[in-house]
């Protein structure tokens, strides 16, 4: 009996000692890893001196700088089409003609209307001279007759122009890039039907630059163009022209077309109309300036722009004045010196529990 009691006491004693040791170890572990102050974790970068450039990027396509869109002066039936799409044409070459017989009859009809109105006008004028009183009613009738006569004169002139330009003639040398009605016998309409001639020897790259960036661009600025068709080739170019009027982009934004020159097209016509690509315009450049990663620049109301400056394992806010910037780096004009360390990540930990 005594031995059983002693065995029970020894077992419980061991259990109590083991539990005490476990709790003591847990206390020290928790004190070290759970309740200990957290060290601030942030990334830093050094303020350095280097050359910095700012660029404006845009997308665009190759177009012809010499292009003519030709339309007939009236609707009618095509009796002859002398070209098809992608044909080369010479300057002053005939391209297509309407049925002149119908146009001639329309002109004769307008001439008959003119003669009729002319007769009415002369008759009204003679009646006016016979009536010396020249009442208000007669004056109005005379003015109406004059207006009617002028209207039919214009109709005759328009019909004559339509007959004169019944055939479309190319004013430039180039390629037929668009022809909406290529088959004789079809009816053509003033609004939609046309023939477009583009000169492949005078190609340019045209890109739409967003309105927030257009103020940074000036004529003559250097640019680099990379076409989707030749991704490994950079084409050095210059800003040739900035359109005065804006255009609406597919996303609903406002942009301005900017034109860039291209090298002369060779015999194999390397630069084809409609080729897409990207352009990067060098808008500003600074030599040997203080630079920090753009992530380092913070902004706070009342303080303005600042960086977190690292000093002896401590960080403090340092107001700065910035210059030009690009997608990676920002120029610092005032506030820091070369060799200083600034914070570029982990900003949420700053200002608390710093070592």
Quick summary:
By secondary structure, this protein is of the alpha+beta class. The protein has four helices and 22 strands. The protein has helices at 2-33, 100-130, 136-164, 211-214; strands at 43-46, 48-64, 67-70, 76-81, 88-89, 94-98, 167-169, 174-179, 187-188, 195-198, 203-210, 222-227, 235-242, 247-248, 254-261, 276-293, 298-300, 304-311, 314-319, 321-325, 329-334, 341-345.
Layout of helices and strands, plus pairs?
Blueprint: H1 2-33, E1 43-46, E2 48-64, E3 67-70, E4 76-81, E5 88-89, E6 94-98, H2 100-130, H3 136-164, E7 167-169, E8 174-179, E9 187-188, E10 195-198, E11 203-210, H4 211-214, E12 222-227, E13 235-242, E14 247-248, E15 254-261, E16 276-293, E17 298-300, E18 304-311, E19 314-319, E20 321-325, E21 329-334, E22 341-345
Antiparallel strand pairs: 1-22, 2-11, 2-16, 3-10, 4-6, 4-9, 5-8, 6-7, 8-10, 11-15, 12-13, 12-16, 13-15, 14-15, 16-21, 17-18, 18-19, 18-22, 20-21
**Count of beta strands:** 22
Strand-residue proportion = 35-45%
Span between termini: 63 Å
Structural class: alpha+beta
- Helical amount: 25-40%
Rg value: 42 Å
The run of helices and strands is HEEEEEEHHEEEEEHEEEEEEEEEEE
Question: What is the average of the pLDDT values?
Answer: 78
How many helical elements? 4
Number of domains: 4
What strand order characterises the main sheet? 2-11-15-13-12-16
State the major sheet.
6 strands, antiparallel, barrel
**Dominant shape:** elongated
